[in-house]
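User: Hey, quick favor. My workstation is busy. Could you predict this chain's structure for me?
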Amino acid sequence: MRKRKSVVKPKQKFTAYAKVYKFVDGKYVPELEENTLIKRTYGTERINPNEYKSSCKGINIANAMERIILKKRNLRMLKKMEKGDDIIKISSSHYPIDMSYLTPLEQKEHYDNMKLEIIRTSDTIINKLSAVANKVSFNDKGEQILTVYNIKQVGNKVMKTNYIRSNSKLAKWIHNRFEKYSNQLNCSMPRYYINRRDIVEKYGSRMMNYTTDCTCIGRCWYGLNRIWIDVNYHDKQWGDDKKEFRKHLDNTIAHEMVHLKFGDHSNTFHVDHEGSKRARAFQRRLNQVLRGKKYV
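Assistant: No problem, here it is.
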């Protein structure tokens, strides 16, 4: 089963904390003005007089921090400005910046401001599942503001570990779904794997490439009666909602079982999803199986 390009790398969940301080008489003191806090921290919940808490997502903890402090983004912009680019496109998620409308003096001022922004933003320091960074800025009154960011990873709620034990409730539920679709499709029970460690130990390191393929959340080798399901991906995407998690996992299991049953090109009822027309035909077959259609 293929992932859409937009979800190639599932984003993990993090909790971001931001403490804000004002530089007064040669030392930093807690900044208690609410408007300044909101402006500087992207926060949604005030938990202390000078601290806000919010949630954020990222491919990993460094990426999540970067989405807040934007140091790498600003460095990319600076390099493009140094090249003299008139149209600066930082990433697909940001609109291009047209520098041609600025006078040489305005461009230099923008360049200097960007350079100062980078200097005032620290690198991210990562300590296992938490990361810290800080940024210095100035408020409307010209007062120096220090924001200290701390990001912590939020654990998945369904899976407690990357390795699923065979006697766990989740493993038993997955086994029951495979049994259900095997009976429904009138085919033998496949040799299925839900732990990457197990399939790599069994078939060698080449399976690491097959199971970490950026487009794969499930894979079927119908000639070998073998199936791989990336349960960890489903957990990262829908782990905070048990109902959604099991719904999407069930859909992936059914998807791979349809491949197992109808993957052979010599089969009269062969279906696959190579191309939009064939993909629609495959989806119709999958929907029939999900609704309970039986084959003899």
